[in-house]
Amino acid sequence: MKWNAELYDDKHAFVFQYGESVLDLLDVKPGERILDLGCGTGHLTRNIQESGAEVIGIDASPEMIAQAKEKNPDVNFSVANGTDFHFEEPFDAVFSNATLHWIHGQDSLIQCVSDSLKPGGRFVAEFGGKGNMEKLIAATGQVLRQHGYARLAQSQPWYFPSLGEYTSKLESHGFRVTFAVHFDRKTPLQDGDKGVAKWIAMFGSQYLEGIPEGEKQEILEKITNLLEPDYNEGGQWYADYKRLRFVAVKE
Ligand code: BEZ
Hints:
Blueprint lengths: L4 H7 L2 H13 L6 E5 L5 H8 L3 E6 L2 H10 L4 E4 L11 E7 L8 H11 E12 L5 H13 L3 H4 L9 H10 L2 E14 L6 H9 L9 H19 E2 L2 E15 L1
Parallel strand pairs: 1-2, 1-4, 2-3, 4-5
Antiparallel strand pairs: 5-8, 6-8, 7-8
Bound molecules: benzoic acid.
Benzoic acid binds next to loops.
């Protein structure tokens, strides 16, 4: 997927703003060596560095890394794939915010994380859990099928596991899960009744691939109307996010 890094920074700042509370779980100690996996435009990577750690941010998107480097020239970033990365010097912790749901091949990812950690090192992350955005996914599927786009209706690219599924996976790769939670977090969308369309443009553009522009707008309006009773609370729109957060220690 090709990312629009500027739109991400401008209209989807909530992604890294919520991530700031995941940093509390990471509990960085000065001098630690930390990998930020899926660093996006690098806001949280910079916060980690400001806590006194030595940090490297990686992301599979060259557009995100270009923006991260431009905004934070004193932070170390590189383009790398979450299921296939390797570093000579091991880390005290691997941190990841709002990224793991994009990655298919979680066994490879968890193995790369484990290989890159010191014994006793921690993997601390938040991402979309089972049921994340289920109302938006259902509404989008319904409208696309009405318009005859049954194939696009199924094109949901994300991995939203249950807590049991993901923690079992971590355990099967030799991690001890010391904290895990699966919780609802209504997440504000920007720009009122345009927020759903903007979210889909940013994160779900695969749903609309190849649809003529006029029809796209009609589809987005119908999706917005279907979601309004659940998403619009007095003019502020919220998406039905469900998060998984965990801390896992490499034994
Ligand atoms: C999330 O943060 O939950 C998310 C973001 C974009 C697409 C899917 C999920």
